[in-house]
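Before relying on records like the one below, remember that each one covers exactly one chain. Contacts with other chains, cofactors or solvent are not represented anywhere in the record.
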Amino acid sequence: MINQEFKDMIQAPSVIRALAGYANRRGKEIGYENVFDYSLGNPSVPVPEELTKTMIELLNTKDSAYLHGYSPNPGNPMSREVTADHLNRVFGMDYTMDHIFMTSGAAGAVAHALRCVTKPGDEVLTFAPYFPEYNPYVNKTGAILKVVPADTTSFQINFDAFEEMLNPNVQAVLINTPNNPSGIVYSTETIQKLASILESKQKEYGHDIFIISDEPYREIVFAGVDAPYVSKFYDNTLSCYSYSKSMSIPGERLGYVAVNPRATDANLIVPMCCQISRGTGHNCPASLIQIAVAKCIDLTSDLSVYETNMNLIYNELVDLGFEVVKPGGTFYIFPKALEDDAVAFSEKAKKYDLILVPSDSFGVKGYFRMAYCIDTEKVERSLVALREFVKKEYGR
């Protein structure tokens, strides 16, 4: 008999993926250039030119087994060493390669980190609004995800609700900054307060509480925004990263777990990740992309287009009377819908070929997400459709 649990999940697929599928079908009817698809966070800017050149050079000059063979379980040693050095130079840390475990994107990193610091029945807290896939990421480990309600005035952490939900069964706190879907970046003040609370609770409960910091948007931070590196402020932090957004290579599935050297049992966590891989079938990312990225470690794509797009959309939303907290990074914005039912709002938007993601699955009612990782020219054309939508459907 097939597994009923996963069979049941077929009836509740990702809302984001479902809308992206609708946008693609609609694009076949009217031309995808005429569909204003704000559903999926798929980077729109090219990879760094140097990365392409590096991959071509490697393919032309290096031994096939070196490029395409298995890497060691923790990842390619050069890649791990270069990653540690990069983090130390940029953030003033003291990682070694023994603190770096290469993964299949940030999703793979979070999957390993959760299994390192929880067991079935433990609680993991996260903060709304949150990435919907955290539900299967956490719950399929046997741990239990619990969601702290949002502070919708700022989308920083709702500390009153957080402290009420803390209890001795909480073993980890899963955070995402810069945040999907809100685009908000947790401030230094926020991270310091979170660290202080958790340090106190560790002493009170007599056990470690780890922060699992999901950081795939770490390089997409806008001018003047305070963007602290979480591991600088809390020892028991596992930093989970992906090159998907910074280098525009989501399909290459490359990321890592970086274990804070001051974390409890820091020297054991990477070896533990290797054992976790045996149970999940992870078995390290592709060798070629590990090597190529290591040689281009300080590069990013031209990420400036995302701030340009954000300003265009934010200013238009404000002019149209939307309530919206201005993003500090990522390529997402999270306005309040013009009616309480965000699903109904998003369905109405489809009539204008605007594909907007309702907020219900992000743990907040009455909002919607726009992933503005599309060409600026298309953003500008979409604003005409947005104005028409708001005027005809809501009389604004």
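The domain at 4-47+302-394 is CATH 3.90.1150.10 (Aspartate Aminotransferase, domain 1).
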